[in-house]
Each structure stands twice: as C-alpha cells, then as structure tokens.
Please model this.
Amino acid sequence: MTGTTRPAMAIMLMILAVSSAVAKEDTQSECHANPDGAGWVCGDKVVQKDVLPTTKKEASAATAMVDRPGSRLDWVPLSEVPEELQDGKCLICEGRYIDPLADADLSVPPEESDIEANATETTLQGNTVTLSGGVEVTQGYRQLRGDTATFDRETRSGTLEGDISLREPGVLFRGERADLDSRSGEATINNSEFVLQTFHLHGSATQLSRDELGLVHMTDGNLSYCAPDDKDWNIRANSMKLDLEEGVGTARGAKIELGGVPVFYVPWIRFPLDDSRRTGFLWPSLGSDSKGGVDIALPVYLNLAPNYDALYLPRYIQERGLNHEIKFRYLNPYVGAWAFGGSFMADDKRYEDEFPSDSNSDRWLAFANHNGLFAQRWRSKVDYARASDVNYLKDLDTSSLETKRQTSLLQLGSVDYLGDDWLFEMEVQQFQSLADDINNDYKKLPQMTGRYRSDGTPFAIEPILLAQYSYFDTDDERVTGQRIYAEAGAGYPMQWGYGFLKPVLKYRQLDYDLSDPVLFSEDDKPSTGAAMAKIDGGLFFERQTDFADRSMVQTLEPRIYYLYSEYEDQTDQPDFDSAELTFSYNQLFRETRFSGRDRIDDSNQMSVGLTTRFIGDTNGLEYFSASLGQIFYFEDRRVRLSPLDPADKQAGSELAAELTFKPNPRFGLNSSLLWDPYSGAVNAGNVQASYTRDNGSLYNAGYTYRRPAPGLTQQSVTEQFHLSTYMPIWSNWNFFAAWNYSIEADTSIEDMVGLEYDTCCWQVRILHLRYFDNVSGENTDFNNPDLERESSTQVQIVLKGMGGFGSRVTGILNDMIRGYKEREY
Model:
C-alpha cells in the first residue's frame, strides 16, 4: 500500500490534536453555551459549526447513504454510485467507498487551523468542559463527532462517548468510547470499526489503542480488503500491533478466514501495511510442467539496509531436485545501481537421464546488471549472464516463453563520457551461445568509439566526425583481428514550415589488422574507403477535413532520398559483426543496408516515399496514417555480406507499405506489406488488430507471412495466425486464451487457455500452456517428429491487499496476450 497518510497513526494524531487544541482554547478563557443556541463561546470568541469540505462528485452520494450494512464505513452500493465514479474496482466490488472529505484542502496542516465546535449543550465546571447533544468538532480537515465529550484542562485528557466518529481524508474510525491523553500520547477506542479508503482496507477491534511510543494495538481485531459486508477473507487475531512508521503489522494467534471459516492458523505473523521493503517470506509460486513436474518456490526477502537487499528463492522441482536462487541489489550515488546473483542446482536428476554423456549434472546461472550515471557526464553499464549449459533457460526458467527461447546470453560492460560536443564510448562484449549448432558471436575486447555530437541547428554546417577501434576475438578457429572504422564529412540541414532538405557529404574508411587472413587473401591488413553523398528532402501539405463527424487535419508528406556511394572491392574482408538489414519502409531512408561496420556498401539509388496522416484538430491524436515507398537502383549492388554472393541486379526494391488505424481508444490496427512488383509476389506482410471494451475484455487477431530471403531455399515460407483474448464470461468469471497457428505446418505451435475467478477481495487463476521447444527466430520444421511439444500448468491465488502466489501466470499472460496489462485491483 502506498500513500501520504499513515492511516491509523493519522487518526490517533487527529484525536490528540483535537483534544489538545480544545484544551488549549479552554485555558485562555471561560467557556459557556452560546445564547443563540448554536456553538459555544470562549471569552469574546464565538466558535461556530463549520461547513465541512466535500467533493462535488462524492458529496451527493455520501449524503444520500441510508442505514445499511457498510454505510457506517462510507460504503455505497453500485446502484447508488454516480456513473462517473464507477471505475473497474467499483464494478467488480459492486460498490465503493465514497469519502466526504476527498476534496479537502491538504495544503494547510490541521494544527494551523482554528478549532470549530458545535453542541446542543455546553457547560464548564472548574477545569472540565462538557459538550453534549450531538458534539461536532473540526480542525482544518479533521473531524470528530460523538454524543458527549468531556475534556479536562488540567490533565489534558478527554473522553468521547456514544456513537463517535473520527475522520480525516481517506480514513474513518468509529466506536462507542474514546479516551484521550495528549500528554502521554495515549488513546483508546472501544468497540471500534475503521476504514482506510485509499487502500480499500477495513477492520474492527474490541479495543484499539495507541501507546506513548506511537504503536497501535488491537485486541480481538480483524483486517480485510473486502467490502464491509463481504466475508470472503480476513485476518483475525487475538492481538495485533501496527507500527505505522515502519509500515508493518504483527499479529499473534492469527487466523486467515475464508467465508468466515478459519483455513490457516499461525501463532505469529508479520504483514505489510504499505509497500515499504521489509524482511520476511513472500507468497510462494506453484505450478507443473512437462520439463520437470511439480514446481514449488518459496521466496524469502531480506531488507538488509535502505540501499541494499537480497532475495533468496529455494525452489523444488519434482523430477530435478532443489534449486537455490539468490539476487542481491545495491544502490549508491557513487557506484550506481547493481543487481547480481545466480542459481545453483546440485545433481539435476532429469538432466543426468537426458544427457548421460555429460559428466557433470550440476546446473547453474550467474548474472550481474549495473547502470550508473556520474556528474551527468559518465555513464556505465554491465549486463552479464552465463549458464552452465545451453539448455539451462529452457529447463529452469519457466516465467516467460521469450526467455526460454533466447539463443544467447549477453556479457557486456561499457563506459561512456558525454561531453558538450563529443561522445566517447568504450565497451567489451561477448555472447554465450545457447544453441549447439550456432557458433558464439565474436568478442569485442574492447571497442572504443569517439563521435562528434552536433546540435542539428538549421542553416548551419553540421560536422560529421566518427572514429571506432575494435578488437575481435573468438574461441574457435575463425579469423580474428583489429578493425578501425572512421568517417568524416559535413551536412547542411535546412528546415521550413513546409518542408526540409539536408545534403550530406562524407568519406568512410575501413582498415584491418588480421591474425589469420588465409580464407580471405594473403594480405593481413586489407583496407577500403569510399566517398558517400546523400540528399534527403520532404514537403508537408495540410488541409482541413472531416471524418466520422470529426474535424481533422490531413497531411500529405512526400519524401525523396538520393544516396550515392563508390564501389570498392571488399572480398578480402572478414565479417565480425555485420548482417544484412531486414527490409522495411524505414529502410528506404537509411544510408546503409548493413548493420555493423564490416561493409561499406556501394549505392546509386533513389528512394521515394509518401505518407498521409489524419490528425485530430483539437486533441492532436493521430487516427490514421499510411505510408508507401520504394527504392529505385541505378546500378547493381556488388558489395555483399559473403564474398561468394553474386551482385544484386534487381532494378528496384520491394514496394513497402505501412498502415496504422486507431479511430478510438478501443480499436487499433497495424499492418505492413512488402510486395515485389517485378515478380508479382508478396514477400512479407502482417496485420494485427486489437479491440478492448469498458468491461476489461481484450481481443487480438493477427496474421504474419514471410518468404525466405533469396538464396535460402532450404527454408520454408512462414505463415502464422494469432488469436488471443481476455474476456468476462459470467459474473466474476473471466476466460483467457491465446493461439498461434502455423498455416504451412497445419498445426498449433503455441496455445494457452485459462480461467479466472475475480472478486472484490480475492482472485484465483489456472492456466495451461502448450508450446514447442524451439529457438526464437528460427525457421522451425514443426512436422519434425523429433521436435518436442512441452506443456505447463500454473496456478495463481491472490488475496487482494495482502498478496498471493503464482506470479508466473502474469508473465505468461503478458507474453501471449498482446496489450494485456495486469489490473491494479
């Protein structure tokens, strides 16, 4: 729970402040009933009843409440809640708390406000002030009401009796009697009820007291996140102690009740009152899958200091054994944020059966992550992970399908200096392959880059200066060596309200010093260099239009991009970190068709693109956009990634199109298409549509098609269909499912189905998932009989406001249902 008010402590401080302030007012003069029958008089000051602050929306609902179960704690049933206050939590709880003080001015502390009181009868006898007949006392946003109130000016103590209520914004206490002592700070309320509206938490106690240390004690008390008349679950204890400063509660003789029936008893338990970090057990995780059987984990959190902590996770996997995971976090303004740890499983029984030739069946993972920023100039980063074997993530990381399908683990460290005009970077990087048939990528040990940072001022020369040194190493027999890449030139950006134009001229140079150039040439120091020129220009046209009864601005944005680069023979150069970029609409306006720095591509081409948008005239929202473009080649592209690849003689690129349509917050559609006008074939395309409703339901449908790149004839066409949904089906029941279907293989490649029962104060989910044990991004033959289909069943139970177990379910839903967001209630 979060918030600026410590609920029970705020109430206690309110009681003490009111009693102390009234006593202070009384010491200044004799007080008596006001002759006009309203309020009371102290000396020459008349203290009248105040008009209490309320919100415009909530006041009418609060005053309309009648005597019903829960109304004493500001609970209003759904039928009487104003429509504008009926959020998701209100609908599922069939009602909500409505606070009459929700719009109170919190900027002025109550201690700085005058006390205003009203009573039918007020008397003063010696040091004792007695108010009776509907006592109402306010001090700023604090309120106190009761049938009678007595304050002793000498002892600075008081008693309220009858139907008493003590209120602050977001907090309400009720009871039969309250005893207050402003000197010691002690206060006691008998037969009390309370609600912490901000946190949707309520409870009761035979006696509630605050001691002189500020701790709140409850005798025969209970707490629950449910509605006041709902008994689905609550914590009941013989005694509770609430430390509001630390934000933690302790209960002795505690029982967790479901539907009024005790289901779990503990002699002692600690539980959170807010979201502050504290040592203790977290909720367990429970599941089962075909790669390990029953899987149970019980996390233990260790709050070691304000700036560092640890999480230990013992995890039992039925067919494997006991796995130990630990994670440390450390935060320091001088060394940045760190997270490091790992896991270890001694003698994985199932792994030993599957890989008998492996002499060591111990499994482990180590990781370290770091981000730092010093003096707003120096940035540092560490992203390191290493596993005992290539199957570790597949076997033991069950929280995410994406993680299970990683093809490599990154091991990166970098330091950057960000100057006013220059950026300097140094990094070391390597990968651990998680596929037996894929070589580890080259290691960069190190790579250093210096770059001039231009501010892009229009109509001013923009210098271009970049230099990069890289040393590449590998554990196998491939070529290694050093690479230096540099470029220098200038651009001249021009911008107007109706368009832009930017010419650029620069020279690119590439030099190597290789350790074993036999596969390339006898020269161990190949080099190449080429001049490059480009000019990028576009126009903006606008017109007013109407669409679906909405006033909009339609734009028309033509863009032309000419690129020229000299050809230089590069067949004697290695490929350390380069690849051909996947073609898309954005590729039309890039100055290279390669990633990395190992190829200086030859170009003589012109890109033509056209974009149109429909933008709301008043809100600036983009309802529709569409783009279409193509590259026209004036010469063959002879520089290829592999020296054995022939020149690309195509006269033009594929026709690239993109479309986005979002007419309202509920519906969205995104699509892209690559069509080859020379063969008449569609090479790639996808369309994704999503629709949401006010009841929280979500529907997705998608289609993806891609032909393999030329020369990769051994790969098949990829054609898949996706459906996913999260939807209410009956009362508190929700259904969720996802289905990824391979059309070319005529089989489901991933499917998930589950049910959720969701109430105001608890939630249970059960999920079943089936998937193929394939590598992400790999063109998989799903008809291969050796390809294994795996399955997993997960359970999640949440007692709202207290937590729950089964967090893996949330991770799978985020992976498989596009646009899914975990609700906060």
Summary: The mean pLDDT is 83. The radius of gyration is 35 Å. Helices lie at 7-28, 56-63, 88-93, 349-354, 392-396, 401-404, 808-816.
